Amino acid sequence: MAKVIVASMALPVVAGILISMLLAAAITCLVQEERHIYLVLMEGVALAFHEEASMDQLSSTLHPNREVSKAHAKHLLSFHDLFLQSTLETGSYSKLHSYKHIINGFSVHTTPSQAERLRGSPRVKFVEKDRGVKMMTTYTPEFLNLPKGIWAQEGGDTRAGDGVVIGFIDSGINPFHPSFAYDPMQPFTSNLSHFGGACETGPLFPPSSCNGKIVAARYFSAGAKAAANLDPSKDFLSPFDADGHGSHVASIAAGNAGVPVVVNSFCYGKASGMAPGARIAVYKAVYPSVGTLADVIAAIDSAVLDGVDILSLSVGPNEPPEDTLTFLSIFDISLLFARKAGVFVVQAAGNNGPASSSVVSFNPWSLSVAASTTNRGYPSSLLLGNGSILNGVGLSGPSFGNGSVWHKLVLAKDAVKINGTSPKTPEYIEECQHPEVLDPNRVSGSIIICTFSAGFYNGTSTLAGIIDTAKTLGMEGFVLVANPNYGDYIAEAIPFAVSGIMIPRVDDAKVILQYYEQLTKRDEKGTGAEFAALAAVGEGRLASFTGRSPVVSRFSSRGPDIIDIHKNLADVLKPDILAPGHQIWAAWSPISAAEPMLKGHTFALLSGTSMSTPHVAGIAALIKHYNPLWTPSMIASAITTTSSKYDNLGEPMMAEGSEINSLLPSTPFDYGAGFVNPNRAIDPGLVLSSEYVDFIGFLCSLPNISTDAVIAATGEQCNHPFANPFSLNLPSISLSALRGSVSVRRTFMNVGNTTETYLGSVVPPNGTKVYLRPTWFTISPQGTQDLEIQFSVVQPKQNFTFGEIVLTGNLNHIVRITLSVLAVSV
Q: Which terminus of the chain, N or C, has fewer Cβ atoms within 10 Å?
């Protein structure tokens, strides 16, 4: 009903509501953004060292459920609260933790002036600013070293990418979001004479939506209308984004700099796109109810016609075509024509990993992007009454925020109404999806244990269902534990509106349930009668910046590339590049038609190659701004040849495997050329170019292909085919069946301003020998140099092996060419 009402509201009313929500969030964040986290140590004995505390003599574990210990813990908690209330100004702080076990103190989120008040108080030993926590969001600009790198060279965070138009084919955009606002006090300086997009209007998308930051907006719905009955409450026939996905990707690539991120009244920092000065062109082709290739291809066509510089595709087919080669599908050919028109195309590699040959971006004229982690995480913890602390996942405030430390722990199965008539399926009795089946007297004010059972495994049960149950019955919080019958599960951080935590490991779930059973009394029927187990959910919204990164994400699709549905291999390295795609904060649409948990939110934390793709689109805009005359192939070459294969520990990158919590050595089939390095990509030294005529020559050289097929797909004759597909002048070399010896040529162009001498070296793939001719060369500005690379099999291998060519210039340019070879026979 609510959706129908919203859909029928007058446009200014809805726009006003959305803008009011955003202004309120921004005001909240502006108050918090000047705050810091402080650690405060107080005088007085902590719980473990209190003279009357009860300790287990064998394990030295404190038993806080015993009366004396409980009383002292309550005393410390109350004292901390009263001390803060009497010392600091009301509304000037938020207490994060009370430390009671081994130290007596607390952590507080407040301003420096209020921290000085704490320092001057007689009961305080000392106050320390927490140096380990950064209040940042998209974080990836910092992770990629943009602020002091390329942004500084392009005029700062508001100018970087100015003059470049990025087209987004997706679910539309939320024009009321501050990430897409236009500030007339800081006007854009570059004209867009090359761009001629229009602004279509409709529900929730007034003419003012195209404001100078958003320079064009269109929607394509014919395919959607044909494929399904569109729902007018969410499938708006306008460029407005009712889903959120389109707004998310657009803000990652080109969102304004320094936008406050507030979710559930908590400020997570500020968000910035990769190219905050770039302009946004919107081409809506996917709807909450349906998306069709027909609409997507129409959007590609329109975007190229309008004159976008870069096309970002986080949508597309999720499997290879059945009746043609992967490179000759209409979708891929439409991208070839976009490339012919001078548009740089960035495409998501897919989320079908870690299976082999799972990429869904096949062609060599699009840059396909894999996804990685960053070193930012959101640790959360569950505290049990016996002193155990278990790590988990969940962006929520602590359950003891209301002044009470411990809460009764109740298993969902034990809270089902005794005389209820609900089905005895996991969805009803284990998974906390239906509040009507639970006894309010048993769960009110408690922390309920829900189990990851069949519904979650099959995708029919949701976290939103648990949260709705918790809210409806007045629970203090929830714990979603792993089920031994299904093994460990994958848990991604997501904001919870109530205190909650996911415990994805079976071993940890067993610890919780064992403790629970020890303190739960049951009647003769086995029904829970008395519940004495206690727990507390810890603060889960504070970021930590530790650990190995980047790591290739488990879901990220892998190579090798394929030429058809039968998975015959192609001589093209896919994916092309690796970029951040795990737990990325970015803009969202409050309607959130497809994700109930994010309804009302203006920011979301998401993972996928959908998120890594706009990172590279934005980086391409930065490179285009810095080098406006570069062609798409030059930009693609610069991005790939300057990337890194090493993580922040200086070790070869790892990849998440199929087993949860497993890390495996990664290969170019996981990360392509490597992890993107934008500050090096603007000045790569050498580039390799391939243009439209070269791609036609590539298509004509594919095995078992008729010239008629190429003519039918492209309209071009096969007058100049390559001898082999691997002859295409790509910034990588992939040989899917090396027999004996073969010679491969690559042509380089110097895009530097001075003459430079390069020395070549090779790390040959196992089972091969690789020779370079010449081994060194001197190249002048805009000059070209051919490099002959001779591959020879010395030992056949069952699988691909990998290496690289490294060209080191005397002016500190380093150019890397990734090699992937399947050595078949000598």
A: N
CATH number of the structural domain spanning residue 66:
3.30.70.80
Report the alpha-carbon distance of residue 318 to residue 326 in Å, rounded.
12
Cα–Cα dist 505/90, whole Å: 41
Whole-structure pTM value:
0.83
Q: Are 305 and 322 contained in the same domain?
A: yes
Q: List the CATH number of the domain containing 754.
A: 2.60.40.2310
End-to-end CA distance of the chain: 71
Please report whether residue 648 resides in a domain. no
* Biggest distance spanned by C-alpha atoms of the chain: 92
* Distance from C-alpha of 244 to C-alpha of 225, rounded to nearest angstrom: 20
Q: Closest Cα partner for 575 from 616, 632, 605? A: 616
8 Å CB contact between 786 and 745: yes
Count CB-CB contacts under 10 A for residue 361.
28
591 within 8 A of 380, measured Cβ to Cβ: no
pLDDT band at 546 (very low <50, low <70, confident <90, very high): confident
The residues, ordered by sequence, that sit 6+ positions from 610 with a Cβ below 8 Å of its Cβ are 245, 248, 249, 314, 315, 348, 351, 581
Amino acid residing at 445 = G
* Backbone φ and ψ of 102, nearest 5°: -110, -15
Provide CB contacts within 8 A for 436, sequence distance 6+.
Answer: 422
In the listed set 654, 681, 708, which residue is the last one of a domain according to the structure? 681
pLDDT at 56 over 60: no
Residue-wise pLDDT for 397-448, tens only, equals 898 755 677 899 999 999 998 877 778 888 889 999 999 999 998 898 899 9
- Whether 294 and 356 map to the same domain: the answer is yes
Residue 676 and residue 779 in one domain: no
Tally the domains of the chain. 4
Which positions are annotated as active-site residues?
170, 245, 610
Tell me, yes or no, whether 665 lies in a domain. no
Domain that holds residue 395: 382-539
Q: How many CB atoms lie within 10 A of CB 566?
A: 7
Q: Name residue 365's amino acid.
A: W
DSSP H or E segment with residue 448: strand 447-451
**Whole-number Å distance between alpha carbons of 310 and 367:** 11
